[in-house]
From TrEMBL:
Its cofactor is Mg(2+). The keyword Chloroplast does not apply. This is Nucleoside diphosphate kinase. It comes from the Bacteria. It comes from Flavobacterium flevense. The gene is ndk. NCBIfam families: PRK00668.1, PRK14545.1.
Amino acid sequence: MTTNRTFTMIKPDAVANGHIGNILAMITNAGFRIVSLKLTQLTVADAQAFYAVHAQRPFYGELVDFMSSGPIVAAILEKENAVADFRTLIGATNPAEAAEGTIRKLYATSMGENAVHGSDSDENAAIEGNFHFSGREQF
Ligand code: GDP
């Protein structure tokens, strides 16, 4: 089932570097509707759970430390073909490989500190969105 929704986080690097406004403008200018939005911070346990799929990877500890290191912006976004179109808008995981004009090309600093998260499937988008937002926070 396709929900036409995805989940994103503006990561601690981009929040600290003052890019919240520019990134939200890119997202809405690309046609995404904001369903849910908040400034929040992941605990270490939240970050471990969120990235559990990467638990065996060598960068897991670094990723968990980074993602819990400061405030993030969490959002649920809606648009036709949201998951795939948002992955296109953010660009490759490694900003050095990200296409011109993508969020990561413009605002990411490294493979780890890469400015934004975007869900990789409709199923994960729903899980991740529901992790951060109750039903009455989804508009
Ligand atoms: P994404 O779907 O493009 O975010 O990429 P992945 O699901 O493969 O990885 C999740 C996140 O882990 C990435 O967005 C990065 O923040 C981080 N990550 C991936 N590879 C590396 C790496 O080699 N080093 C570090 N430090 N972080 C990484």
